[in-house]
Amino acid sequence: MSLLDHLERRLRRFTIPNLTGYLAGFQGALWVLAAIMPPRLGAGTVLDGFQLVPAKVMQGEVWRLVTFVFLPPGDSIWAIFGIYLFWLMGTALEGHWGTLRYNVYVLISVLATIAAAFLLPNGGPATNTFIDTSVFLAFAYLYPNFTLSIYFILPIRIKWFALLAWLSYAVTLAVGDWSDRAYVLASLCNFLLYFGRDIFWRMRFRKRQMETAFRKVTEGDLPFHNCVICGLTERDEPTEDFRICSKCDAGTFEYCGQHLRNHEHRVKES
Predict the structure, then answer these.
(1) What is the pLDDT of residues 81-121, one digit of tens each?
(2) CA triplet 111, 136, 207: central angle to 5 degrees?
(3) Do residues 201 and 148 lie in contact, with contact meaning Cβ atoms separated by under 8 Å?
(4) In a 3-state reduction of DSSP, which class is residue 155?
(5) CA 177 and chain centroid, separation
(6) CB 27 within 8 A of CB 70
(7) Phi, psi for residue 150 in degrees, rounded to 5
(8) pLDDT tens, position by position, 4-54
(9) What are the phi and psi torsion angles at 228 (to 5°)?
(10) pLDDT for position 190
(11) Taking 80 as the threshold, does the pLDDT of residue 3 lie above it?
(12) Cα separation of 214 and 226, whole Å?
């Protein structure tokens, strides 16, 4: 029984069922609040008070350690679509894993984001963008053929969006600043903990498949019989009778009818 199985039996009563529903609900409420309360001159938006800013947390605004998780993915109308997708994917993951495993997955991402914010020199601000992305990557890994309709017209499988996300992460890790790199790594730690072993074995299996395919291509369809003297095969002479010499004890050697009795016997060296 795995560690998560033990935790599930002991901590089941502390889990939060329908966690994504609560998070999506708060995100929608904050989106509405930001829409009806436009930013004031020099004061920023109402959402600024929910961001994770380590310096302000150290000054006593400890609610930011939790409220940043409720931030909506933007302030435009498209944020509603993003909230809906987050709810859809998170609910599917909770149904696939169970409440505890999904709670732990989200919690790891939240704690990693907080740690990254406090370890960075500039100290934030941090949002929940990478937390939502980690949910998206997990959903795309488990349901790669799930189809999204772009502008409700063009159907595209979610695995291609996940590929774009992975490419974006790769570019960020390669040329981005250390702040962006830290948040990318924070959003990937839970994904790697949950899927790293499966990815490793898949890559190993596919490597074997590629090696087998390459060997077949390079070796081709080899003949079964081959005379070690003249190289004659059953493809050259389909009616030829190939035999193994019983007096050659240095290995298994086949000969055609012409060279079976007319060859130098091969013996093992003492």
Answers:
(1) 889 999 999 999 999 988 888 998 999 989 988 888 888 77
(2) 100
(3) no
(4) strand
(5) 23
(6) yes
(7) -70, 125
(8) 666 666 767 778 888 999 999 999 998 888 888 776 655 567 788 888 888
(9) -75, -10
(10) 87
(11) no
(12) 23
Cα distance between residue 45 and residue 145, in whole Å: 38
- pLDDT (mean) for 159-177: 88
Run of H or E residues at 129: helix 129-142
Whether residue 124 has pLDDT greater than 80 = no
From 169, 113, 111, 175, select the one nearest 140 (Cα to Cα): 169
| Nearest C-alpha neighbor of 123 from the set 204, 59, 175 | 59
| Vertex 107 angle, CA 101 and 108, to 5° | 90
Give me the domains of the chain, ranges plus CATH numbers. Answer: 3-207 (1.20.1540.10), 223-270 (no CATH)
Position 4 scores a pLDDT of 60
Tokens of 88: 């859809």
What is the gyration radius of the CA atoms in the chain, in angstroms? Answer: 31
Cis preceding linkage at 155, omega within 30: no
CA distance linking residue 125 with residue 48, whole number of Å? 9
Question: 221: how many CB neighbours lie within 10 A of its CB?
Answer: 6
**Which tokens sit at 184?**
């990318």
